[in-house]
Amino acid sequence: MILWIVYIAALLIIPIWAQSKVKKSYKKYSKVSNSSGMTGAEVAKRILNENGIYNVAVEPVKGQLSDHYDPSKKVVRLSEDNYYGTSVAGQAVASHEVGHAIQDAEEYAFLRFRSSLAPAANLGSNMSFFLIIAGLLIGMTELFFVGIVFMSAAVLFQLVTLPVEFNASNRAMTQIVSTGIIRNNEEKETKKVLDAAALTYVAAALVAVLELARFIFMYFAMEN
């Protein structure tokens, strides 16, 4: 009973805590102007140019924290606040997304692996619970097992995402320091934004692993 309570608490509390952490950090440093006066778009373009990457566009996108890199279209998309703004948070997010563009240009192995997993992961996310619940309802362990296999693909995607995101953040810090974008004491502040964002991926991976483990235990219980 205690283990069950701990499990439920982990599923509920960890993601909420991680999201709260990143939103708090982003909100704080989005109000702090960077010393270079560069917008997020200018930061992104500067790093891309410094690395000889000229085939990647930088575009604004609506929404908050909707920033991402699209490898299929070679576009770094920054939320409008980060694209046009000159905050410490904006330069951190912009440099992180360009970190993914650099990974793509250098054919970073984990990014390639994650991209290859994406179709199976999407299918797994959409089908796994349907198969697992159907297996439970009709008592068909084979169907339940297939659901676990589908879920495993989605969980593997989450796990592979971790080194991709951490590596992008490390590249971001290296780039904004080496290019002289960061000045004064901004390195510590920028790292706080990047570390907070990384927590969301860690939390998502942890929850995914816990869910998979629960269904695996249920499967063996059904078999016995």
Q: Summary?
A:
Pfam families: Zn_peptidase_2. With 224 residues, the protein is mainly alpha-helical.
Structure commentary:
With 224 residues, the protein is mostly helical. 75% of the residues lie in helices and 6% in strands. It has one domain (2-223). It contains seven helices and three strands. It has a three-stranded mixed β-sheet. Strand 2 (68-70) and strand 3 form a beta hairpin. The chain starts with a helix and ends with a helix. 35% of the residues are buried. The model has no long low-confidence stretch (mean pLDDT 91). Keywords: Hydrolase, Membrane, Protease, Transmembrane, Transmembrane helix. Pfam families: Zn_peptidase_2. InterPro entries: Zn_peptidase_2. The chain crosses the membrane at residues 129-157, 198-222.
Write the layout of secondary structure elements.
Blueprint: H1 2-29, H2 40-50, E1 57-61, E2 68-70, E3 75-79, H3 80-84, H4 88-105, H5 109-138, H6 141-178, H7 186-223
Parallel strand pairs: 1-3
Antiparallel strand pairs: 2-3
Approximate helicity band: over 70%
- Straight-line distance between termini: 21 Å
| Percent of sequence in beta strands | 5-15%
Report strand order across the widest sheet: 1-3-2
Q: How many domains is the backbone divided into? A: 1
What is the count of helical runs?
7
* Structure classification: mainly alpha
Q: Unreliable runs, pLDDT <50, ≥5 residues?
A: none
Biggest β-sheet strands, sense, barrel: 3 strands, mixed
Order of helices and strands: HHEEEHHHHH
How would you sum up the global shape?
elongated
Oligomer: single chain
Supply Rg: 20 Å
- How many β-strand stretches? 3
Mean pLDDT: 91
